[in-house]
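Give me the fold.
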Amino acid sequence: VQLQASGGGSVQAGASLRLVCVASGLAFSDYTFDWVRQVPGKEREIVVVEGRSGGSTYYADSVKERFAISRDNAKSTVYLQMNSLKPEDTAVYYCAAHDGPLKYWGQGTLVTVSS
């Protein structure tokens, strides 16, 4: 199983970025996908969780109305559209896929938001 995350970068506050997570080696539509972020020295924060196709979606309060997750089952890809970025969104963002006890992580992609 591989999860390949990309799309991070350095932007000014108020800008947008779209993160992309391409999955391979798993039955994509059966998995719940998370985007999780981590600032060095701090605990990981769950940003958004989207259940398997047809499932529910959870957004952290800190990103509601600004971030949106979507998935393309045909491309085995999950997207995180991030709008109105704030300096406090600066972190390494990871995608993760889980199905029951199985959980897989991609490598992180760095998002830096300057004021």
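The first strand starts at residue 2 and ends at 6.
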